[in-house]
Design a protein that fits this description.
The protein is of the alpha/beta class and 586 residues long. It has 14 helices and 42 strands. 26% of the residues lie in helices and 20% in strands. 40% of the residues are buried.
Length: 586
Amino acid sequence: MKTLPNGRLLEHFDELTFAERILLEHAASGSLARIADSRPETGTKKNRVRADFLRFLILGGDAENPVHERGINLQGAYIVGALDLRGAEIGISVTLEHCLCFQPLYLEGMQLKGSLNLNYSAIPGLLASRVSISGSLSLNQLYSHGPIYLVAAQIGGSIYVRGSYLYGLGDTALKLDGAYVGTVVRIEDSSQVIGGFSLISASIDNQLSCKNCTFRAIKGSAFNADNIIVKGGVYLGFHSIGMTRISGARIAGQLSFRGAHFQGNGGNTLSAQGMRVDSSLVLTEFPVPLSKAAFSGSHVKSLIDDASTWGDRLLLNGFTYNFINSRTPLTAETRIAWLNRQDAAYSGQDGLKGSDSKFRPQPWRHLQKVFEEMGHSEEARQVGIAFEKRLRKVGLVGQGTARWWPGLRWLGKVPHVLYGALTGYGYRPMRLLAWILGIWLLFTSIYWYAAVNHKVFAPSNPLVFQNETYASCTAEYGEAWKQQHPKQDLPSDIGNWYTCKALRGEYTGFSPGAYSLDILLSLVDLQQEKDWGPITPTPFPSYWDELKNLEWGHGIRLLIWLETLIGWGISLLLVAIVSGLTRRKE
């Protein structure tokens, strides 16, 4: 006769208690063995069930006392001893509702072809690493005064934790690291997990939902879902006291932190680095703005936030998104303010410059790119201009002059400043036309004043200014006339080439506006610069004598040279912008 291990036959047990006889009777039919309607506070003769006897029935009973396919359904029992099902293969479902245990449940490596229900019970912990449950695991209204370990567990159905209180006694209260869940994980309805919830590298085929619950860290993180894989959505509207981690996550659906409350207890609040979300990242309705949060290297399809979302000391370097669906007006000002909420070192607001600066340009460039792709061209331009100004502020413009003499290093920033002033760093090319108009009007006014009041301009063609027919137009003629008529005003038609009526109409008349435009636009020939020029006296051999005898002609000649240089610079810049030879970021 084959000998069975101790505890596998009914005869191995002494006289059964009242509750055990009820359980044995209902096990044969699979019906509910109701010992009490609520969880007992102490053990009595009527509610005690030995853990070994419960194990006997969970394993199927014996030949004379078989267990029905509907499984074990026990309610209101006081379980004495440790329920040890390590490595067991169980072909039924097990329900232990409103039960009280004073020793942990040992389920490591157990294979359960059904569901496990511990609703409304109180246990000092559940050690179930590598457990395999083909159905669901229900921990609703559970009171656990010890850790619940489901490391590397295989749950074919769902895990439900609703209205429960889980206390890890200084350890992680609920641990699902490396676990597989076939449908959903739900922790809801004011559940409290004191010691934190860890599901590092877990895999969930449908949804993870942790809403209206509290995770409190004793040591480590309050919520740790690093490297989790979820084929559906993740909804985390919880209260976290301690760091929340979801770095490296791969989420096929939406990741929503709607209504979440993050408390870092003085440290970082949220680490969401290197994650991939194929749908939206929802960060809305926060009671406290999100501060000390890291999204570095993460990618989401759509970013949804609102006015209450962002606090300070953010890490956004490498964070990418395809769209922004903000609940606030989508303006460049609000988004630039968002970038300025980054950690001071990475946003360029810590005062360090040049090679000492840790400024990160990627968040600015990516925001500009997304604005452009969304059709917000003006916002994209404003972000680009703000970015260029920030580059200059942190000393990342003109770095080629870093080894120059300190008094000359500022010269390296001059082209960048001029580029910004003239064209808005390429984002405001029409501004260049305004500058051209202003410079043209300024020099036109000067040339007109010099021509009328100081008789500076004269024809540059010798056939004209040496022709005696036009002698009345020369300054010498005007001076001679004044000597002969000292009491009369000099007529406007003599002594000034600009206003001289003797000058034949066939010759190009002097026009201050056309003359200024001819010099300013070096690629345009209006014949003014060829036919007219300022009258400058013969230079003195001594510099000192030359300085003492400066006239308006000298000043106008210098202004012509200056306008020529300005014209060449503007022309080259305009051609470069129009032809696309220069990029906006340069």
